[in-house]
Structure formats: C-alpha cells, structure tokens
Amino acid sequence: NAGVMQNPRHLVRRRGQEARLRCSPMKGHSHVYWYRQLPEEGLKFMVYLQKENIIDESGMPKERFSAEFPKEGPSILRIQQVVRGDSAAYFCASSPKAGELFFGEGSRLTVL
Amino acid sequence: AQTVTQSQPEMSVQEAETVTLSCTYDTSESDYYLFWYKQPPSRQMILVIRQEAYKQQNATENRFSVNFQKAAKSFSLKISDSQLGDAAMYFCAYRSDSSGTYKYIFGTGTRLKVLA
Fold first, then answer.
1. Residue A98 has pLDDT above 80, yes or no
2. Which of A72, A89, A110, A83 is nearest to A16 (CA)?
3. Within 10 Å of residue A38's Cβ, how many Cβ atoms?
4. What is the model's pLDDT at position B103?
5. Closest Cβ–Cβ partner in B93, B103, B108 for A48
6. Assign residue B43 a region: left if phi > 0, alpha if psi is -120 to 50, beta otherwise?
7. SS3 A85
8. What is the pLDDT of residues A63-90, one digit of tens each?
9. Interface test with A, best of B104, B108, B110, B111 (most A CBs within 10 A)
C-alpha cells in the first residue's frame, strides 16, 4: 500500500507565477489535509477536504490560495501570483475516517 | 477553539538516558485523540504514538510512552534509552472527534538533541 504521494518534491517559481502542488492520498483514505511549515516553525493547518468537498478552509489565506479534491485524481493546492512569503514546505496528509494522519514527504516551494 | 502548547523549544538528552517532552492542550470537548509526531532532518512526519482520550491507560510503543493527565490536559512524551536516531523535532497534536470533522491541531514543536 503506497503512502501519501506528493509532487513535485521541490518547486521553484518566480514572483507572480502560479504554483500547483499535488497530493494522492493513501488507498482507502477519503480525508485530505494540507499544512504549511515555515522554516523552524510548526505545522499550520490550511485546509481539510473530503472527495469533492471542502470541509474546513479556515487556515487558508482568502486570496490567491485554493484547494480541491476531485472525484477522480489527486488533491491540488493552487497558489496564484506567488510572493516570497509563500516559500515554505507544504505537507499533505490523509486519514481514513477515524485514524491518525499519514503524511507525505512534503513539497518545498521556493519563490525567487 | 482548541490549542496545543509545547513550552520547550529545545531539549537535550545524553545517549541511553531518558527525556520527557511536555505538551498541554486546551479543549472543552470530551472525545478526542492525542498524538506525538517526529520530524527528522529528512522532514518526513512520522507517527510516534497515539492516545484516545477515553482510555485511562497510558499508551506505550517500545521506548516511547506517554503520561496522559486528562484533568490537567497534559500529554507528555517519555523517551527511554535515547538513541542518536531519536534526534528530531517532535510535535504534539490534537484531533477532535466531536464535531464530525477531524481537524488536527499541532503544537509548535520541541527540537530534541541527543548527545553521544
């Protein structure tokens, strides 16, 4: 059973470009979470999704950030018009309905 | 809103010794889970141990055990016989089960150094 798969592992963008981060949850997991980690800091909750539904997006900036988890395919975290402050590691995690989080290896975004 | 506090930004322990990492949380809910995750330099988040709030018995996983004090809202992690490979960031996490959604709240982490 493959773990949570995130890609790309590393992404470099220039200011103003778009970043798309993908996450395939573990097989059988219907809950997906996105977290952001700034250097030397903890994990900040961004958004929690189930298939085709956003359950809680209270941690996501109102502008430029969006997330989806379509019926088919991976979950996507999209950041439009990136700024230097968006540089961080973005972690995706999945869980079955009642269980612990299983994390991907993270996607490190660098904005030049 | 629920909060998780880790008051020790950094801890050190001698190899083979025991260390305890502190975690407190604030909640008004009765059903929840608590977790400790480890993040080594590779940055992969690894589950160390979990505790269901309804269980009075403290969880144990090999050299890792917790001291769960529900009334005090305290959830400390004890690492026995510390090894060099235990060096990592450790995050305490809370998950509520009361609202039907499963949002995880993380503390700010404790960096553990293991001295040879």
1. no
2. A83
3. 12
4. 76
5. B103
6. left
7. helix
8. 999 999 998 899 999 999 999 999 999 9
9. B104
Chain segment B79-114, per-residue pLDDT in tens: 999 999 999 999 999 988 766 667 788 999 999 999
Token representation of residue A66: 């969006």
CA gap A68, A92 in Å, rounded: 12
Contact B39, B30 (CB under 8 A): no
A83 by DSSP, 3-state: which? coil
Q: Is residue B68 a contact partner of residue B59, using CB atoms and an 8 Å limit? A: yes
**Amino acid letter for position B38:** K
Spatial separation of the C-alpha atoms in residues B106 and A45, rounded to whole Å: 8
Of B35, B105, B109, the CB nearest to A100: B35
What six digits make up the tokens of A2? 């493959």
CA atoms within a 13 Å half-sphere pointing along the CA-CB vector of B82: 22
